[in-house]
Design goal:
By secondary structure, the protein is an alpha/beta fold. It is built from 12 helices and 9 strands. The termini are far apart.
């Protein structure tokens, strides 16, 4: 049974740390432990089960702990996001997921906290001192069960209409370890598969499917039960034992009991970090006043 994780650093742990075609380095900044993993070729991509590209992982204090809106760590995360973005042009931020299912609500909750600025133009922008704002459009996609539209199709239709220079997709993720829930942030330039965090993986959203760069951002909110059992036992379960964790063929997920607080604070952190990343001509304090 393949251990399930959306985190590239965990995929590297599972596959082995000496895989060829993978660059990996770690560094610290403003009290955050950050790793940068680059998958350089197709062979490495197959070994990890991850697309070629860059994966930045930020280790956080628990998001159930309070943090300041002007915390320097927000600026650090914003700078990491900015490194993967095109320098100029309109950006489309898409919040993926279902706001009515708490562990899958990270995307739409984050989208609600991102400054939409595409409509602030002309004399109004100059008079208000907002002509330095980078144009940003924001959307919450919902899920196919609500809309009858594949998330990728929905985003593609907007991309064709407004022609952004890049898409930033925010979604909940799955980890292999309980201690990573609400304590890890992944940023990648390889796109995303909607619904991955809650076991409902859909068609990929990436440069190939949308025609523009796709930056994905996520925080793990769940652990697959079979993966957790394997991780705790230190080995893969035998087939019969593994089936006992899938009653009636239904995958089971483990969710922390403080999931409401976790998703609320994670979405606040991501919203602030995205605003800091995109609107770098403004101080964070100024952006907070505009939110």
């Amino acid at each position: 049974m393949r251990l399930r994780t959306d985190l590239a650093v965990e995929a590297r742990e599972i596959a082995g740390e000496h895989i060829g075609g993978v660059d990996y380095r770690t560094y610290s900044e403003n009290g955050l432990e950050i790793s940068r993993l680059t998958v350089k070729n197709e062979r490495a991509a197959r070994a990890l089960g991850k697309g070629q590209g860059t994966y930045i992982t930020v280790e956080l204090p628990s998001l159930t702990d309070r943090f300041s809106d002007t915390d320097d760590r927000i600026k650090t995360i914003g700078a990491e996001i900015r490194r993967l973005l095109p320098v100029n042009g309109l950006l489309l931020v898409a919040g993926l997921g279902n706001e009515e299912i708490t562990p899958d609500s990270l995307g739409p909750k984050t989208a609600a906290k991102v400054l939409a600025t595409r409509h602030i133009t002309g004399e109004f922008a100059r008079a208000a001192g907002l002509n330095r704002l980078r144009p940003v459009a924001v959307m919450s996609t919902g899920v196919t069960g609500q809309t009858g539209i594949e998330t990728g199709e929905y985003i593609l239709s907007v991309v064709k209409r407004i022609r952004p220079s890049a898409v930033i997709a925010v979604d909940a993720l799955a980890s292999r370890r309980l201690e990573r829930l609400g304590c890890t942030l992944q940023i990648s330039d390889t796109g995303i598969s909607p619904g991955a965090g809650v076991g409902n993986r859909r068609n990929a959203i990436n440069r190939e499917t949308l025609g523009v760069p796709v930056i994905s951002i996520g925080v793990p909110t769940v652990v697959d039960l079979r993966t957790l059992a394997c991780d705790l036992l230190g080995s893969e379960l035998k087939r019969d034992a593994a089936e006992s964790f899938v009653p009636r063929g239904k995958n089971m997920l483990v969710i922390p009991n403080e999931i409401d607080l976790l998703t609320e604070r994670a979405s606040r952190l991501l919203g602030l970090s995205l605003n800091a990343a995109v609107q770098d001509k403004f101080e964070l304090e100024e952006l907070i006043e505009l939110m």
